[in-house]
Structures are given as C-alpha cells and as structure tokens.
Amino acid sequence: MSRGITLCIVGAGSSYTPELVEGILAHTIDELPVAALRLHDIHTERMDITASLARRMIAHAGRDISVDSGTDLEAMLEGADFVITQIRVGGMAARARDERIPLKYGVIGQETTGPGGMFKALRTIPAMLEICRTVERVVPEAFVLNYTNPSGMVTEAMKKHTNARFIGLCSGMPGIVRRLSEKLADRFPDLKVYCVGLNHLGFAYRMVSGGKDVTEEAIRLVVDRKIGTAEFARFLGAVPLSYLNNYFHHAKRVEKALAGEKTRAETIEQIEQEVFAQAADPATVTKPEALAKRGGGGYSAVTFSFLKAILNDTGAELVCTVQNGGAVDGIEHDAGVEVTCRVGKDGPEPIPVGAMPLAFRGLVQAVKAYETLTVEAAIHRERGLVVQALLTHPLVGDLDTAVPLVDEMLQAHGLDYR
Asked: Is 161 within 8 Å of 155 (Cβ atoms)?
C-alpha cells in the first residue's frame, strides 16, 4: 500500500480518540504508514476538539499525516482502508439509565450484559447498521475495527445483516493474554494462550509451551501467585476476565452499586469534562493526562496489532469477536464468539476450539442465547423478543422481573417496540 493508509474514525468525538492518535505516533512510518486521518462524528463540538488536538499531536511529533473532520460520513469514508467505530448512542445519560434502572429490580446495571447491555444494543445496532451499509457502499474493501459496545452483540448483528468486513475488538482478553505471558514467563518463556467465550465473558482456557499443553500447571501457578482472577481460575480451570464478578458475585455487585452515590456513567462524565478541558487547551500536544482515569487502557495497542497483522499478512494469533463458523461446538454457526484467531490480509480466521469446558459452557451458552435474541429484537423491534432475551440471561431469568423491567426501560429510552 505505497500510498499510505487512510484511517477513518467514526465516533471521533470520543475521549478515546487521543489514545488512537498516540498509538499511530508510537509507530514509525515504516511500521504503520498512516498518511491520512479522517474523523467523523455527529457531535461537532467534541469532534472539533479532538481534531484540533490530533493536528497538534501530529505536528509535535514531526509527522506528515493529514487530518480531516466532518459530519458527512460518506465524505470521511472516501478512500479509507480501515474504519474504527466507537459510537455511543444516547451518550452517558442513556448509559446512566442502563446502570440505574436495573438496580431497582435487584439486577446489576452494566453496559455490555444484562438489561443494561441489552438496551445499549437495542439503541446501537440500528445506528451501526447504517454506518456499515455506508461502508459497504463507499469503501467495500475496508476493514471495520469495532469498539462500540456491546461489542459482541454489535459484531453478531453486523456479520449477520451486512457484508462489511467487520471485526469486534476489545482490550479485555488481549490484556489477560499479555499478563499471563508476563507473569508466567519465568516458568514458560514461550507461553501461548488460547481464549474462548464471548465479549466480556471470555476465558483463557488452554496454554501451550514448547509444543506441550501446560494448562493445568499454568492454572496452578495463577492460583498460587494470585494472578488476576485467581479466585475463579481455581474452580474453573481457566482464567476469565474480572467481568465474571457480575455473575459469581452478583449480590455483592448490586449491593455496592446501590450504596454508591453515582453510577459509573456519571463518574465517567465528570472525568470526560476534565479530559476535554485539557484537550481543548492549545498548549496540550500529547494525550490528555486525565484520560488515564477513564479506563479501557490498551485499546490502542489492540487496534494497531490487528491493523498491522492485516496490512502485513502476518498470521498473528490475536483475540477478537468473529462469526463462530463451527469453531466452537454448541454455538450456532452464524453467532458471534470471542476466540483466538489467526489474522492475515483477509482478516481473522478462528482457531478451532471444539467443545468448551463444562465448568463454564452452560454460562456461555445461556448468555449467547440472550445476545442472539437481543440482536433479533433490535432488528425486528419486538418487545416479546426483549423479554425472551432477559428470561435466558443468568442474572434475570424471572418473568415477574423481566416484564416490568423491560417496560420501564423501553419507556425510559423512548423505544417503540411492538
């Protein structure tokens, strides 16, 4: 690609955009030949701030990368090789409702699972379908690297209902892989870690060193050294994300959330005010320091790991959400799964898993049913499917809870479902 890469960021008014710019500048032009950056958002004030900061960061680094911004999606997509999507339909106000309303029913409010994740998906999937269909029309060969939450459900919907070259990314499981490789390096210097599950319900289930399966020994070390989610690893024989607290410590999570004065969304809203105040300062020429408080670290590194693997056809083994395609037994062929894939010029190819371990198979399958039903509810706008989805979810599963909860959240978000 001698002309250099054109990269379009959709949802560029996000506070995460400076981290992406920092990630570009952390590479040499030979490592990552980005020549043009296109920024799109419907929120012009925030986009103008991030675009101005991007130009200052690039100039400060002494790089020659053009930056254009605008609200016309087609214009910003023109000529793009990669598209990064990071939109938030309804903003933090909608997220706060997703977090607070379920607590009234004794259910944790969280933006990627349960009632909160469901309603974020119901709002987000229609908007993402419009974006992906525009990508199909304007730059059909471009890869879409998605961070829009709930990433798993969004990815499943886009793969089922568009032809976009869509990949669901998250920094969660790649972070687990990196930490296990680092923390166990003294015993397994060449450790390979393989993952299976769903976005924010992923498990490092198999570890290989020197061509041998060392999973049992590696798990014992994780438990003995109290690495990450060692409490869960002891019982599951796999290392999961800390999101498993939502399932295995649900009562404590609800109690803590009820005791808090603010939702996570309200806390983030305050942090973002600080981030954007720093970003708008003409003296700021690097990523705003306040962004460190925001969370979600490592997401730039994951983005560019995929971009480089595709660009250079490396076949790197990376974790992402893709269509199952038979890689995982017991999950529908066209459903989304988060697994280790080999990534090359044609995108990710899932490494076959076979049957998931029984210790967490049922949980993953139940949440997968909820996700697929939620996708169908978003496509068909049917209230009955929304209720069905919550009845399959391990944190709800009660009709007397699901029906009033669904109705209150539909009304709160102004969604007209039959």
From this structure: no
Residue 79's pLDDT is: 97
pLDDT in tens, 383-405: 999 999 999 999 999 999 999 99
From CA 334, how far away is CA 297, in angstroms rounded?
Answer: 30
Asked if 148 and 11 count as a contact pair (C-beta separation under 8 A), the reply is: yes
Sorting pLDDT into bands at 50, 70 and 90, what band is 293? confident
Cβ neighbours, 10 Å, residue 163: 12
Active-site choice (16, 243, 370, 417): 243
Residue 297 confidence (pLDDT): 65
| Residue located via tokens 């479902």 | 417
pLDDT of residue 1: 46
Question: What is Dmax (Cα atoms) for the chain?
Answer: 61
Alpha-carbon torsion (417, 128, 103, 170), positive or negative: positive
Q: Identity (one letter) of the amino acid at 176?
A: I
Q: What is the pTM of this model?
A: 0.96
Closest CA to 169 of 329, 334, 347: 347
Indicate whether 208 pLDDT > 80. yes
370 catalytic per annotation? no
Quick one: tokens of 412?
Answer: 């709160």
Q: How many residues does the chain have?
A: 418
The arithmetic mean of pLDDT across residues 220-229, rounded, is 96
5-169 homologous superfamily: NAD(P)-binding Rossmann-like Domain (3.40.50.720)
Can you tell me the distance from the alpha carbon of 231 to that of 206, in angstroms, rounded to the nearest whole number? 18
User: Rounded CA gap, 96 and 90, in Å?
Assistant: 10
As a whole number, mean pLDDT of residues 232-240 equals 97
DSSP assignment, residue 143? E
**Cα–Cα distance, 195 to 172 (Å, whole number):** 11
**DSSP secondary structure, 300-355, as one string:** HHHHHHHHHHHHHT--EEEEEEEE-TTSBTTS-TTSEEEEEEEEETTEEEEPP-BS
Whether the predicted pLDDT of 70 surpasses 80: yes
